[in-house]
């Protein structure tokens, strides 16, 4: 059976947050802004046709996006010991940029830590522990090269995010894996890890994004890319814990990351597995 | 069998052109530009860590991208007769923007018109005809709601594009479906059509992108989205004519289009169909 | 005596605030951002030379700037009863844009309202009244076509502006002329008025920039341009109340405003007037 | 007599080219683009008022602008021997940026080399020589610290600039001082030099802006700022050769240059000097 037929009837979940001016994002990055430049009626062609289009200004690390390995360095070195200065120029990164990330189409495991604690969303500043991950992974195989997502339920706050709801966690922090949990994840040798918060990792209250040790562990030490600001609420609710993930960030040559619209594809020609029930 | 298992061993083809400053694009849209803003070493944290990131300025219709239905109007009206002025504001389009495009994961048919003519790439300014499409579609089923790509071989010129190679066709035109071919395509009621050139449609020599009747037929009259500037060379060479396509443009709320990194997934758990041989 | 000789020994005061990322500005406008794009060493020419340069993203109404008459409309009409829709397009404004503002080199009067109240800076949300202006104007001639600045002392807060110091007045408001004071100013038929706050006019606490009646009075009803976010502290301290002003906003064709670096030139070949003592 | 009175009746010449999308500029810099973001009618307040504003994306070296000393380095060093790397960061230049340029209000001398040759504009690729400058300077005093402009007549081509008229000189070159003429100018120790072309200096045919030795001489070796892309046609026609110049580039902190709207002020309370006749 051809693949396209195998996927007929599959359920496709959009794991990206909608991108719009004012959406929550890290203050370290240029704010997203989309402006209509030409509007219908500005320039009407003789036959009555007209086109509209926009200009977009943005950072690469806004909305749902993938961190390239080149995003973080330690003591001047990128992953694999490459000196950052040698591959960095006005054109971005000659190596380890997001264009070096091969699109991922494959198995993904969701570790639902919110469910472990019986909550819809983990509290601000909560540090996800090794024990949390092990309990969430019970009955699930974590294979080398697969994708692993850590569910915190944090994306449920997106729509209400504002000055009242501190999505970025600038004041109250954000839930996510701490250093030990990150090492546990890295030891499984995944292709990529991801989550719902802006920084993926544990942000303690009042600390902001000042130090990001989990980024160092994943990107520099382990060569594992990170997907951030994912929309997982619907996936968490679906009960699926093992599914097909499509992760294809924009191929921006030399960039330290890129926006992406990840898709989870649930179901199969022979029905859902127990884990997807 | 779960879907992710069905896809193990599948061949994934990246159908997006790499995005970089100076790449070919329509002069009607803001030029793509990615600049490193923060470099490694600019701000080294106490522990020796450092992060780099960029600022991006771009149009939505640059690189490989999907046109939203709101992109074109005729006599002031968008698809379905909606007055453009009613849904257009500083926030973009309240309806028919690219965020209204549901990600597509499904069957795609490739009509290889270059192969019909026995050439690697159709000549500049060549108008793809109904006869061309019918010959390219021989033996292939075109179903309502599927994706249809028209192969011209034009993406083979991308890497060499420059002032010498006129990728956009400003002077010599670009190959693509003319009005009759567009009506033939629209009559099959596809979900989306796509191709390798910047405008998808036939651009006669010396005319540039001044009038784009095929855009009107597809976007306004038929409600069919268009994918442009695709990288199809590898797909054309693969011989696959029927395959799984993933098309998930960035969800930019209210935009008239968005960049995308489409993927073709070839193969299947039960082997390739004859058409993919 | 040639003019350049007449100005030798004159004291030139820079009335512009320095422009940098994160400076206070109205949330209604795109934030100012300057990023080095090419750095020294990125591209070293054979002889050892290298150039650096930047990319700038900004609104026109950030930092010290002049409002064009096209900036505000009332009931769809611009100054002089021109329908806004008729002169507005993707290229900006065909009339009444900032390029229609002829550079001003001439007499300027400073009405120091802070001094009237014996304070370094007026309190947040203070409404400058007609009585304030009349007291500040005592002994000063206000001539048709001259420039008039209203001193509030607010620019003294610029350097400390931050989340703690609410320069924009989003919460506590900002001092400035109310409606009556604006009518008093407009009746003197100045060429341009200006001040130190972001909106020039009185912003009551808790109101933000939601309604700006003084903008309507000045720009739409009276055809008087407004200079905002000026740095007047040094000028206020100088004691000069009548001086030469140079006001030459960037000639951005069709824009609703433009940044400017205004200069006050104090002194003269035959000595300071009493008012400049 | 106060200064403002001394300037009454003076003639003010705008020496800036109008800034608009598509204007001639160096390909080394981000293209200027101004887009209306909010239009009248997008958001009408209860009382019927509405505001329009824009977003601007640009390089600092576009339109009429001043080069900061930090713009060019030689062997890694800026003017005065400062290593570029020490003062360069994500915030631009901590020293020698355009914010270090004190606004200039003073005497300016115009050396009209086009007049020396009896032409309206020097031909493309013409190298201005020491002899040209000496003949143009006949009868004019060049004092240390003054501004010196070199007239080539090139700004007469601005309005017609297009693919036909090669304003930037990419193919045919542009007229301007060569290395010897630059050393002659630098030896007079001016505060600033300026001209009508994009690069100020001699650009030989077919060379583009690949090497710019005059920039090195002025910015690095001599500490003399450069004004480029000036509009001098009206000034050349006026016959004024010695006049008051106002040069106040935008105070963009850390930038390698900034746009400016220079003004020439002609005349004086005691009449024009012979040189202004």
TrEMBL record, chains A, B, C, D:
InterPro entries: KFase/CYL, KFase_sf. One of its GO terms (molecular function) is arylformamidase activity. One of its GO terms (biological process) is L-tryptophan catabolic process to kynurenine. It comes from Nonomuraea montanisoli. It holds the Pfam family Cyclase. It comes from the Bacteria. This is Cyclase family protein. SUPFAM superfamilies: Putative cyclase.
């Amino acid at each position: 059976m051809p693949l396209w037929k195998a996927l007929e009837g599959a359920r496709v979940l959009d794991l990206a947050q909608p991108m719009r001016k004012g959406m929550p994002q890290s203050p370290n990055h240029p704010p997203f802004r989309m402006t209509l430049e030409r509007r219908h009626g500005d320039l009407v062609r003789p036959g009555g046709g007209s086109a509209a289009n926009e200009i977009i200004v943005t950072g690469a690390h806004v909305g749902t996006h993938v961190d390239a390995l080149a995003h973080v360095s330690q003591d001047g070195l990128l992953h694999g010991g490459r000196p950052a200065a040698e591959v960095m120029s006005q054109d971005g990164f000659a190596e380890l940029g997001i264009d070096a990330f091969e699109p991922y189409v494959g198995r993904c495991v969701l570790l639902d830590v919110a469910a472990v604690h019986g909550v819809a969303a983990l509290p601000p500043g909560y540090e996800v522990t090794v024990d949390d991950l092990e309990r969430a992974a019970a009955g699930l195989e974590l294979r080398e090269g697969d994708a692993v997502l850590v569910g915190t339920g944090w994306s449920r706050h997106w729509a209400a995010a504002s000055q009242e709801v501190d999505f970025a966690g600038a004041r109250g922090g954000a839930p996510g894996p701490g250093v030990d949990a990150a090492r546990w994840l890295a030891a499984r040798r995944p292709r990529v890890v991801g989550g719902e918060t802006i920084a993926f990792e544990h942000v303690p209250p009042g600390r902001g994004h000042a130090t990001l040790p989990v980024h160092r562990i994943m990107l520099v030490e382990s060569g594992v890319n990170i997907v951030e600001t994912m929309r997982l609420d619907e996936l968490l609710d679906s009960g699926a814990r093992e599914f097909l993930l499509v992760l294809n960030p924009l191929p921006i040559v030399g960039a330290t990351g890129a926006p992406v619209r990840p898709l989870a594809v649930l179901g199969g020609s022979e029905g859902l597995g127990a884990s997807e029930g």
